[in-house]
# Entry
Amino acid sequence: MSLLELDNVGASYGAAPVLHGVSFSVEENDAAGILGANGAGKSTTLRAISGMVTTTGSIRFDGRDITGMRPDKIARLGIAHVPEGRGTLGDLSVRDNLRVGAFQQRDRKTVADDIEYCLDLFPNLRARIGSNASTLSGGEQQMLAIARGIMAKPRLILLDEASLGLAPSTAQNVYATIGRLRSEAGVSMVIVEQNAALAFRVVDHAIVLETGRISLQGPREKLMGMDEVRRAYLGG
Amino acid sequence: MAYFIQLIVEGLATGSIYGALALAIVLVNRSTGMINFAQGAMAVLATFVAYALTESGTPLLVAIVVAFVFAFLSGAVVERVIVRKFEGGDPDTAVVVTIGLLTLFTGIAAAFFGYEPHPFPSLFPAESIDILGVFISLRSLGTIIVLLLVMVLLQSLFRVTKMGLAMRAVADNPQSASLSGLPVSRLLMIGWGLAAGLGSIAGVLVAPQLFISPSMLDFALVYALAAAILGGLDSPFGAVIAAWTIGIVENLAGAYVSFIGDDLKIAVPFIMVMIVLAVRPQGLFGRKVVVRV
Amino acid sequence: MVWGPALGMKQLHASGAPKEGQMRLSQRGRSRTAVGAAELTLKNVNLTFGGITVLEEVSLHVEAGQIFGLVGPNGAGKTSLFNCISGHYVPSSGSILLGDVETLGLAGDRLSLMGLARTFQHPALQLRLTVLENVVLGAHSSLPGGPLAWALRLPFTVRAERAAREEARALLERFGLGSVADSPADELSPGLHKTIELCRALISHPRVLLLDEPAAGLSHAEVEAFIASIGQVRADFDLTIVIVEHHMGLISAVTDRVLVLNNGRTLMEGTASEAQSDPRVVEAYLGREEPTDESA
Amino acid sequence: MKNFIANTKVRGLALAAIAVFLIVAPLVSSPFMNYQLSLVAVYAVAILGLNIVMGYAGQVSLGQSAFLGLGAYVAAYGILNDWPIVLVFVLSCLIPALVGMLVALFAVRLRGIALAMVTISLPIIGVPLAKRFSEFTGGSQGTTVSWLDAPDWSGLASDQWRYYIVFAIAVVLFIFGRNLTKGRIGRAFGIVRTNEAVAMSMGISSYRYKVLAFTVASMFGGAAGFLYIGIVQYTSPETMSFHNSINMVVAMVIGGSASIIGTVLGAAYFVFLPAISGQIDPTQTALISGVVLLVILFLLPHGLVSLPRRLIQLIARARQKLNRAENAGPEDAGPAQNETGPVSAHTTTDVSESHPESPSKNT
# Structure
């Protein structure tokens, strides 16, 4: 049984349909990528999984049907969605952001340990631990958003455009940490990324979306070898 | 001198009533980012519930507890059924929604109890005590103590408890908070419920003085808003300090500045707000928000 | 696509500069000292926010007609510098010259009259208005008359309004959006919103155009289209252009010069290729080629 | 284009029909009805002012009744002292405008809620102030003026005569108001409402335009006060009351904010709701008003004026749903699932033309 299974999932904003019959699955300790141009439906796919858009079809997590469930319930089942752009709580301190991430954890000691772990992963955050999230730079906010996701000890992380608006060196650091997180904590991932070169460092396999439909899917090596993918996403 | 101190204590007591309402406004603002112009009207309706109960022979304390519960539930229901749809939308629309609620709640109270004022029993005895030659009414003292208790409880709710943290998170960004598994919808309801409950405390404290009528708290609302804004909207502590200041300054101005007298006292908080905001637009205790382009 | 999808080079030339006889609003309306691309000079600009130094002694010089890039790692202060130039932030000290006019200390809303226009990273359009209305907004400074004249609909306001609408329509045609001029802006894709914003900036006849992350959120194809057409836009509209951008490919393809910032200070100024081969820049900006595990 | 022409024609016809109705109505209806209709015109002017500052420029104002009351006091005082009527009118516009501007110079530096708070204080302070200055205002009793009787040559009853005067002035003010909300100034109001950073880069000073909007709103409020004295012939501190202000905001939203027609609908609602509910039970007016407002906010967020558009939208959506239900079957079960499939030529071209909504879309 796969950890996450999407079967014929569709979604729309108001009257405009954005996704049509998308199906794929993610195994335990697996990292899947979603590639595609702007407006292809990548973010919507993640939003469908975390319950933030109304969907058709069926989405199963760990064997359980989560289609149509409220986002906070889905999150409590062990899915952490790190949304695109400002996913942080701007008026709260960095520490409080992390504490919010650990909302389900009951044991204070564990939470403290987890905060330490996150600060090791993202040393930049340590110096800013008492500052309001809104005063952080774009890169630091992105790190904080990911760290908050980790604090929930999820079985699956959904990462949306983690490199958007980041300088290349910062983006590389973020992805290096994501890779480390996977090997250390064994978290499964679905990664949406415009920069395919970065995504391919981490993912095992990927789907390519075009205007809301899957146009390609397969293991990383196979996709990287395809001319169409190289031209469209790897810049040469 | 004794008269002066007496004025200050009375100012503190009326300030405490504005403070309770201001705390409710701050609480709603924190949990939903809205300003509830109906806060006073909702409190009046809850106070009317207490009034109806005492009229039918229920002990006052029981009536007040029932009114608090009623207020909590009505606040939660209003949030769930009406306000929910407008949260996170256009803030001007949100203002209009709460104005609709203000009209609605005033309307409900008027439809059941009419517009003429009714006497309301006080929780505190009418006597005064003599402290070093200054006569202080037990009513004023009681009001001040109740408010202090409420403030301490609220501040520790936000600062210490996990629920307070969760409520702050939801106030900041409900969507993002829900992705961390926070039960957003329940937290918002609790926020509004608590605020309405606080309002009902202000209502039962003030009703013995003003007599109860549907528009009893209209002016108090303006004072409370002034206090909340002066206090910086995100700081319960600041709101109470500002409410006290307003209460004292208003009382002293009414007594010592003959032009102001009793009828123009209400101009005092307005002018204070104007002056303070001209200097510090973020309020006395609020943080300055850096707008990023 | 950003700069008008169906626009081949041929069309670009054909519909290039404003046609003969077409009225330039700025000449009819409020007068401006000069038109045409202007130099931009910053001297020792400092910016602090609540005690934190964001920019420290930044200087730069952009020749008239250049395309100039502001680059640097995140948090380096590019956007802050950009906002200082556009008047949205007020530097604590220094000097910003547009042509030879000091703009520091002027109210931000006066800069449009001085010939400065900008776009925003997230296009800020009025989505319920038509595309045309959005563009005409940009002509605000060049339209004559105050509230009374417009309330009374004095004839000169009617004429000026008509001219502004014609010019907006011509601009939209130039960028391939003529057919959607009367549609509400929210019916168009985010990529096209950037084009509408560009038209809104151009209708004020700027001498210096500031572009805030023009490639953010665009697909590769759209970025290609942008790169292909930006030079022509500069020539047609006689502009100096300053770009803040993360997309290194774009910066090296279109800019004449770049300023690299790091921690609020100038790291180097030069051409994009000089920047890319400068070891300091490589270290600060691009990072090491193979990032190693930090715990290792 | 065709649509547009048809639209102007329909509009012209509708306007002509309304004009004929407004001219004929007072000749055939009762004095009470004429009084009510005239009041609609009065409040339409006041609500138009409110709409300019709130609907168009996006600045919450809960103090409009203060300006209406001030204008009415100025008008009553001037008339009682036999000042020239034109001067009285000009002063009842200018004095409130000036007061509004002074308040705005302070207040518009505040955002949203602080602004609402400052404006809500205006009527609350205005009422005791009016009572205090009783030599000008007549104190709590208010002032009564009797003027504006129909001259003999007109052959009209006074209610009809007043109706025509008030309507003529209101129409002229509406034309000015409408012009102001279009074109250069209207666009500036719009962008100040939606995005001040953009406004600045367009050369628009948000501060100045907010002050302008407040000043214009207060001026319209004052003009409405003058008209109010023309129709009601009496004013008291109650005219300024906080509830009047609140009810005007409610009426504006119910009619439709940022809309000229919505303003008129709102004024009609403002005048007729108490008249109608008063016949049932006056204590229920507030209740009904609150319910109506909330229902409107839920179902028609852009007010009564958007009712036709909303209906068309709903019908179109229902139709679309029907169509989709018919076509959905084969489409959705469709081709989407190529396993590691070869990329068809079609797919690659799609990558380079990423936008589904190309600008060549016809309208």
Q: What stands out?
A: Chain C has twelve helices and ten strands. Residues 1-31, 288-296 of chain C have pLDDT under 50 and may be disordered.
